[in-house]
Amino acid sequence: MSEEKKIPYKIYLNENEMPTRWYNVRSDMKNKPAPLINPGTKEPMGFDDLRPVFCDELIKQELDNDTAYFDIPQKILDFYKMYRPSPLVRAYCLEEALGTPAKIYYKFEGNNTSGSHKLNSAIAQAYYAKEQGLKGLTTETGAGQWGTALSMACAYLGLDLKVFMVKVSYEQKPFRREVMRTYGASVTPSPSMETQIGKKINAEHPGTTGSLGCAISEAVEVATTNEGYRYVLGSVLNQVLLHQSIIGLETKAALDKYGIVPDMIIGCAGGGSNLGGLIAPFMGEKLRGEKDYRIIAVEPASCPSFTRGVYAYDFCDTGMVCPLAKMYTLGSDFIPSANHAGGLRYHGMSPILSQLYADGYMEAVSVEQTSVFEAATKFARTEGILPAPESSHAIKVAMDEALKCKETGEEKTIVFGLTGTGYFDLVAYQKYNDGEMTDYIPTDEDLKKSIANLPPM
Ligand SMILES: *Cc1c(COP(=O)(O)O)cnc(C)c1O
Fold first, then answer.
1. Is residue 457 assigned to a domain?
2. What is the pLDDT of residue 30?
3. Are residues 223 and 286 in the same domain?
4. Best CA proximity match to 276, nearest among 1, 75, 24
5. Atom of ligand 1 minimally distant from the CA of 388
6. Distance 391 CA to ligand 1 centre (A)
7. 272 alpha carbon to ligand 1 midpoint, in Å?
8. Residues 109 and 122 in one domain
9. Does any ligand 1 atom lie closer than 6 A to the CB of residue 391?
10. How high is the pLDDT of residue 210?
11. Is the dihedral of CA 33, 34, 39, 45 positive or negative?
């Protein structure tokens, strides 16, 4: 016990111990993630094909399967220093409350105004757009965390920003919308009547509350039809996982300081960016055969791409204007029930994580939202932090694993990603507290329908 306590509640790195390079896990993968392909020609998309949509430097990062490390530009490092390094917390209070011999650590990414890890990639993407001399960016946002993060990044660099926000969140989360507007972004509920694709989706699904897939289509349309604008995406893409590797590199540096070796690493998975970032250096060791870790992705039972989806080429968006990506998917016209973890309501999954999952390097589980909020509440009452519903998926499984250790007496070391805070999710907490939260799980029939519409290859 006394030796144990030598590990502080919070392991901070000094500024000069912060990673100065991002790590590209693809460099160590034998089976590389499948390339994005053109939906028309079915050919892999190269640099020139992607230029109308994405910024040049980001395309290079997207397509680079071989370079192991990318230097983080100084201006991005300076921005990171405003809110990083983020703490790695030893959850002593939670361990005690659970009565588990397991040692639980969490990497907390909620210490910035946007309230999540998304700022790590937002600032990188905005930086390369600015360097390219662009006027502005367009994007989609689900729960609002990505839009908020990008608004902060664009304000810092003096870029214009147009955000399409999934309608259900726009209505449920007016305060997020106001944070974005305060940072200078314009925010439009999606599907809107401002784009061709928005009009079409509204006509085909009257009264729809939208989805990330719809909002992506709208944002891409606006970027490609306005001079000096490009589209940026907050998850799924290889470049986003690259930027998010800062989470894992810091985590590893902090653990190494105290000689701690985790047995398992757990993270929630929406499009896969926080999990991909958190596990990156550990997965690198695993791929190189140096170490072994259990790696667990946690997804909502209402949107179970890993656990019930298929591994196939699919559209990244509902409007079918984006490239096709090979990933675990529920079908691009799958619109999940209005569950409260908005950041996890995406039909697909990062191609990198999809390949790693297909190759057996990681596991996945799905959990129901009432059990997630039960875990969130327990966590808030013991560790003090009010967690985001998305992050609480990881909390739930970390607690489950810690309780298994209680039964077996094993002192396993568990690390999980606490991706953000839940201050803007209080409608969800209200539903839970009032006993009005339900668990909607799609039937096999529901999934069959959307999976049947995968593009023919
Ligand atoms: C967006 C978001 C997620 C899910 O996105 P990933 O790309 O899978 O990381 C998880 N937690 C929070 C707080 C988010 O904002």
1. no
2. 98
3. no
4. 24
5. 13
6. 7
7. 8
8. no
9. yes
10. 87
11. positive
Question: 270 CB under 6 A from ligand 1?
Answer: yes
Q: What is the pTM for the complete model shown?
A: 0.96
How many separate domains does the chain show?
A: 2
Question: What was the pLDDT predicted at 320?
Answer: 77
Q: Which of 206, 231, 256 is the last residue of a domain?
A: 231
How far apart, in whole angstroms, are the C-alpha atoms of residue 172 and residue 113?
19
| φ and ψ of 290, to 5 deg | -90, -35
Rounded CA Rg of the chain: 20
User: Strand, helix or coil at 91?
Assistant: coil
Question: What amino acid is encoded at 143 in this protein?
Answer: A
Residue 26 included in any domain: no
For residues 126 and 215, the answer to whether their CB atoms sit within 8 Å is: no
Nearest CA to ligand 1 atom 10: 390
Provide the CATH number for the domain around residue 243. Answer: 3.40.50.1100
Rounded Cα–Cα distance for residues 315 and 284 (Å): 28
For the chain, list residues with pLDDT below 50: 1-2
- What pLDDT does residue 4 have? 52
Q: Scanning the structure block, which residue is given the tokens 């077996």?
A: 408
Q: Could you tell me if 323 and 36 are in contact, meaning their C-beta atoms sit under 8 angstroms apart?
A: yes
Same domain, 109 and 121: no
- How many Å apart are CA 27 and CA 24, to the nearest integer? 6
Q: Residues 6 or more apart from 3 whose CB is under 8 A from it?
A: none
State the distance from the centre of ligand 1 to the C-alpha of 273, rounded, in angstroms: 7
Measure the CA–CA gap between 83 and 19, rounded to whole angstroms. Answer: 14
SS3 letters for 353-416?
HHHHHHCCCCEEEEECHHHHHHHHHHHHHHHCCCECHHHHHHHHHHHHHHHHHHHHCCCCEEEE
- In the reported structure, the alpha carbon of residue 409 is separated from the centroid of ligand 1 by a whole-number distance in angstroms of 32
Phi-psi map region of 205: left, alpha, beta (phi>0 left; psi -120 to 50 alpha)? beta
In whole angstroms, what separates CA 8 from the centre of its chain? 28
Domain end, chosen from 180, 205, 231, is at 231
For residue 1, the model assigns a pLDDT of 44
Using a 6 Å cutoff on CB, does residue 271 contact ligand 1?
yes
